[in-house]
Write a structure and sequence with these properties.
FNR_type-1; 277 residues; Elongation Factor Tu (Ef-tu), domain 3; flavoprotein; 27% strand; Rossmann fold; EC 1.18.1.2; nucleotide binding; disordered N terminus; single chain; alpha/beta
Amino acid sequence: MTAADRFAIHRDKIELTATGALSVETVLNVRHWNDRLFSFSVTRPASFRFRSGEFVMIGLAGEGGKPLLRAYSVASPAYAEELEFLSIKVEDGPLTSRLQNIRPGDQIYLGRKPTGTLVTDALLPGNRLLLLSSGTGLAPFLSLIRDPDVYERYDRVIVVHSVRQASDLAFRAELESGLRDDPLVSEPAMAQLSYLPTVTREAFTCNARITTMIEDGSLFAQAGLSGAPLSVQTDRIMLCGGLAMIKDIAHLLDARGFIEGSNAKPGDYVIERAFVG
């Protein structure tokens, strides 16, 4: 019997205790996209504030009762009453092997201090914002594209989501709709937001890797947009996803004169250093 099985059996007996750094929240909803990916929402403390794109520590009780935590980007908008997260399923992962079995009503730890670099304050002004992601790296961008301030800062917002199989395209329907059901940003999003899903391991409308589309200059055309190619004068970029993808794209951007930014010194592109080291 695995540790996940043992905890599943005794889940009703586990009561979490809040600490100075962690609150205890209740799971409200769980959505399994496929056998590799799920999302879930939890209650939001009245005092919890975050900037779109930030991450926070979440977790469960580990062996011996000590909190077992991992950093997760908040996928919900900053104004939402609930907090949503997107996660992979790892069979032997210390946390995700158990987290994937959560159900509404379960308790979960939530860090009290969100932070992160994938925020608009870490970027210099620009005309187009490119949100380049793979896998669960989409999560912080789901928050950003539902932030009204993003559409005031940029003329165009382009979300690129690269996955292995089409079933990994979480939130695809919402993105393809242009967020038409969002109460705050439906109007600007319909006019300014573009969504480009690309699948690398099975037939799909777009099968190109993000690096390839940057190198051959087809990125904007694949997203159904015309205009000038990628330019340090007009474009600002955020990267989130697999380590190899981030390193490869960062290398391409560096070679084109883009400068990495941070909260202390805004630049042309940002990555989340807490995830990639």
